[in-house]
Structure prediction request, 282 residues.
Amino acid sequence: MTSVFFLLFIVPCFFQPAQSAYNCTACENRKCPPMITPCPGSEAIDPCGCCKHCAKQVLEICGGPDWEYGYCDSSYKCAAKNGTGLVEIPNTGICKDMPGYRTPSHYAEDDDEDCPEHSGCYKVMGTCDCVTKRTCIPNFSFERYDPLYCDPQFDDPSYDHLYQYPCTRYGCNLVDNQCICQQSGCDRTFEFPDKKSCHRVLRERLCANVTCPEVEPLQCPRDSMVTKPHTPYGECCSTIPSECTCNFKLCNDRCPRGKRKVMAWKSDGVSGRCCDKFLCLL
Prediction:
């Protein structure tokens, strides 16, 4: 009987996670930087469900407290700077290819269990398939079912009268060191066609007399690559410099057919020690 009580006590302890999950700051207590579109890739929302931003691209900074440095585009994973796995928040990571971490093979699959749930519809074979999934890149065709777009019968030209095509124009003007963007009629003219080009000119003006510290070119080991420096919105100089990070795509982890792999040394994911060392034996 004693052994039974011992097992009941020890089993729950054994299956507890090594550390508790990161708790995000409440959205109302956060200040999100403005989202500057068009994005080079997808539009994203951080796993905390608070801030929309352009998904980070390869070798860009990601993660950080409350994911303040952003979430990676669907082609990449937010990897630990030093290590062979994904970043653990609140640490800062790097967006890159991570062999061994699968990507969803179907549009209805969850992208990331750490992301909030989103609902929407994908248009497939002329009809809409509406799903709910966990994702930080909600790339739905439509946010909700709309018969004007989802019902095949409305593809008939005779339903063109249901559509309205008002003449509108979108653009931005630079007013008091702020980019004011809006949609207006076609008779309206704007200084800039979009927010991104407006912010680029604004930054050039604000940073015209700012001199950033010189940075020596970074030389990385052959198994690594150089990350992109991080410059926060509104800043002229980078606050996180470039550094070396492992390029796991260069690692060969297989033996020729007919030979077995015997591990000699396991990679710790540190630049210069990125790849496993092993023997291929008969």
In short: The first strand starts at residue 43 and ends at 45. Residues 1-20 have pLDDT under 50 and may be disordered. The helical segments are 2-14, 147-150, 195-206.
